[in-house]
Amino acid sequence: MSDHSASSLPKSALASSFAVVITLFARFVTAVRGIWVGNEPSRKRRIYFANHASHGDFILIWIVLPPRLRRKTRPVAGADYWMKSPLRRFIGRDVFNAVLIDRDREARTRDPIEVMQEAIAGGASLILFPEGTRNMTDEPLLPFRAGLYKLALARPDVELVPVWIENLNRVMPKGEFIPVPLMCTVSFGPSLKVAHGEAAEPFLARARDALLALRPARNGGAA
Amino acid sequence: MMRIHPDLIHLLYGIAAVLVFASLVGYALQRRYSPDGANLAIENLNDRIRAWWVMAVLLAIAFIGGKTGVVLLFGFCSFAALREFMTLTHARRADHWSLVASFFIVLPYQYYLIWIDWYGLYAIFIPVYVFLLLPILSALRGETEDYLVRIAEMQWALMITVFCASHVAALLNLHIPGYDGRNVLLIAFLIVVVQLSDVLQYVWGKLIGRRKIAPRLSPSKTVEGFAGGVLSATLVGAGLWWMTPFTVFQAGLLALVIALLGFCGGLVMSAIKRDRGVKDWGHTIAGHGGFIDRLDSVVFSAPIFFHLVRFWWT
User: Which ipTM score applies to this complex?
Assistant: First the structure.
């Protein structure tokens, strides 16, 4: 699935087998299921924005998308994490074709919004985590960063789809390294767009509410 | 690889015949009442029949694979069931190591003990050792909120989905005089009777069901369905005496016990689903729900069937 022009044939074959192994492992642990609520899979370019509690989040979204959409759907991820070791670099860049952004405001040479726009212009849909970092708190969702708004303003033609990932934070809680098998779901909600003249704050609040509205109601379970 | 007993082949032919018949009925119903796939009840029925085919084929493969096949199949079923159960518990971050141990140590070890036929340990491993050691593991993290609820739920999950379910595979370890090499047929007897009892309760309930038997736990179950299903499953069980070490009367009596326990197992597991606010345990088996939705009755009847046979026949 790697679209990397630089990757050689053996490397891309290795990347595809890695994708299969990671996918099988994720299904074994989470039996993940996609739920479409007031939305349908579509070939149109989209920005999927989701809650972020684990490094496996984008993998679950990716798995529940129909296979023909997977190839053009790229996760946006922090370069600081995914460039750290050769293995991570391989998984992030070659296996999942991630759009890597520099999160360090001081040191970075390129604006992340610019990098994301470039990927969209190249025909990709994006998976974005607007909390900006993994949520390690007991709150269901951290405040959103402004990136989602800026991107939506720059590309008003691209739909924003809220995606709630349920239970993955329990599969692999903060500081643990062995995943526990628990069933996960990924819920897709109705698409959003920035209204004409809508300011950043009300839009981000609206997007955040749309995401929270997808949380499954259940007694007990995830605390 | 063991030799395949002629009785097993007869049984597999019988099951295939029943499934072919069910598929034809399902097909006819679909042509007549749901040509566009609009009738949800019929679509669900056909989903269920298709899933039955898969389950029957997997069981047949496991039976032909002998003890290793059966241990692997039920080990995997336990894994899927445990995954469903733990999802609905209050287990939290502090229980992470208890959960890791449950999935990756307790479950494989229980099935390993069955595989090496160490009855003295697999009969008490979870009820005694795990019962005492698991709460220690959870206590080490020092999180006391909901502590009793959390450990009780984990114990229960392990007892039901691992300990009880593993007794299906343990039936292979019973040494019944004059019945050597045919033990997979005991498993077949248990599963056929329990599952047919479920199906027949459904059929009788649809045909003549009026009075609800447990409206709060399981609104679709009726007195007529219960009586009709359990009685007809008892008769089928008696009719299967030829593949068991039992006489016709004994086979019927055991089938009655199995069917009654299976029915109660369904009620108990429904009560848990109502408590947790979910309709099904999972979604992995099309038309049926999760593994526990399909296995609840087997899990409740297996250990008692195992011990009754062990006590009276070995």
Answer: 0.88
